[in-house]
Amino acid sequence: MTILRSPAGIPDATVARLPLYLRALDELAERGTDVCSSEHLATAAGVNSAIVRKDLSHLGSYGTRGVGYDVRFLAGHIATVVGQTQPWPVVIVGAGHLGSALAAYQGFGARGVKVAAVVDADPDLVGTVVGGHEVRSIDTLSDVIEHGEVSLAIIATPPAAAQSVADALVAAGITSILNFAPTALQVPDAVDLRQVDVAAELQILGYHAHRRQAEPAEEAVLS
Amino acid sequence: MTILRSPAGIPDATVARLPLYLRALDELAERGTDVCSSEHLATAAGVNSAIVRKDLSHLGSYGTRGVGYDVRFLAGHIATVVGQTQPWPVVIVGAGHLGSALAAYQGFGARGVKVAAVVDADPDLVGTVVGGHEVRSIDTLSDVIEHGEVSLAIIATPPAAAQSVADALVAAGITSILNFAPTALQVPDAVDLRQVDVAAELQILGYHAHRRQAEPAEEAVLS
DNA sequence: AAGAGTTTGGGAACCCTTTCACAAAATCGA
DNA sequence: TCGATTTTGTGAAAGGGTTCCCAAACTCTT
């Protein structure tokens, strides 16, 4: 049996926060801030300062004690670490409501993501334009991928179609998939799969809301 | 300073998986499966069986050794635990591409979520219909909330507007927010905030893809 | 030059989550 | 009825991640 190592380097939890730091740093840079403390960055990123320092220490020591971090330098360094020196080209599979919304999203550019293609199985949608991208037939998927146009894929199809789309993506050599369809996809270990499930997020919120209602607002601890 | 307890009961990691089990169980029930093992459910939910058993043990002992779990019964029980006996009404703030896509999403009903209202600040959008919901003015937000129409809120606005929307939601008494805007919102401790950041998800995938490229496919461990 | 004030980096403790492993409880076949 | 087989439920171990805390390193003021 094969075990997929996650060899050297950066803990998963840290990797998941690097994009937040990057976003926060870009914002700070735009506002003209040259240097920021871990406390400052923590607030901007929505986490606490201890975790910022620990996370950044995994990337090496780029801060100055008594001063803080150089905003532009740190942003550049994180961008390098996450491989964002060039925009990542992504293919969006599914040009329904969600796929169209993603295709039209203007915020990708600043975050190192470029929509390279939008494909759909519905002949009526093929040829239409969403967010400046002409929808191609799903039959062109392997061409698009194998010609090196894309390295990341987003699945925005109905759940029933998601598994066969995933199979096609994997067959064409894609190893990174972001799945919006609410279904558990089966992919090889070597493929990196992330899931976004909006209904599940709401249900999690619902659980806590439900408990708050049930319980008579228990006492807060500590003076 | 106030500390928000997460008092008795179910670990956060388990709560986050309950919606997946619920979805998987509903699928199994539709296919006519009456009983399933932890192994079976694990495959359907995309996790491993040890975790399924541990998670379900937090809800009480509802399985039968040597047999498995009653699909319908377990689904009903989980639905009760997550407070999904009645659909949760949600308000969507922002009727742009993403807000419209969410408003039009047909899958919420089956997952215990009901879109109660869609609001936007743009006068040109107010009065239009998205996914069967007439867009109301954002000025009606407090009315909608205070009249008990909704208990969950989705922010689907541009990042610049997100904080003021969050403030308005909190002022109106909302305590559960799902934020799609790529910005760190500042809310009171008592408010439950979850974040969906599509670009960040892609950047995380990018990091791993980047590493795969860089490293010459290191050896697998174990024979 | 020296002392006061800031802020990083990282060791150590703590906490949460996952995985392991197996006794207990059920079914089934003979 | 009994032994073989299946599968749950759960202690215990292992593994990560977060938080705490403080020495070290820097700036600033006097």
Structure summarized in a few sentences:
Chain A is of the alpha/beta class and 223 residues long. Helices cover 41% and strands 18% of the residues of chain A.
Instruction: Strand order, main sheet of chain A: write it out.
Output: 6-7-5-4-8-9-10
Structural class of chain A: alpha/beta
The helix/strand series of chain A, from N terminus to C terminus, equals HEHHEEHEHEEEHEHEEH
What's the oligomerization state?
homodimer
* CATH architecture classification of the largest domain in chain A: 3-Layer(aba) Sandwich
**Global shape of chain A:** globular
Q: Unreliable stretches of chain A, pLDDT < 50, 5 or more residues?
A: 1-7, 217-223
Largest interface summary: A-B, 77 and 77 residues
Average pLDDT taken over every residue of chain A: 92
The CATH topology annotation of the largest domain in chain A reads as: Rossmann fold
Find the count of extended strands of chain A (DSSP E, 2+ residues).
10
Strand count, sense and closure of the main sheet of chain A?
A: 7 strands, mixed
- CATH structural class of the largest domain in chain A: Alpha Beta
Give the number of domains of chain A. Answer: 2
Q: Superfamily at the CATH H level of the largest domain in chain A? A: NAD(P)-binding Rossmann-like Domain
Give the helix tally of chain A.
8
Q: What is the percentage of strand-forming residues of chain A?
A: 15-25%
Distance between the termini of chain A: 54 Å
Q: How many whole angstroms does the radius of gyration of chain A measure?
A: 21 Å
The percent range for helix content of chain A is 40-55%
DNA-binding region (chains A, B): 20-59
Family (chains A, B): Belongs to the transcriptional regulatory Rex family.
Protein name (chains A, B): Redox-sensing transcriptional repressor Rex
Subunit structure (chains A, B): Homodimer.
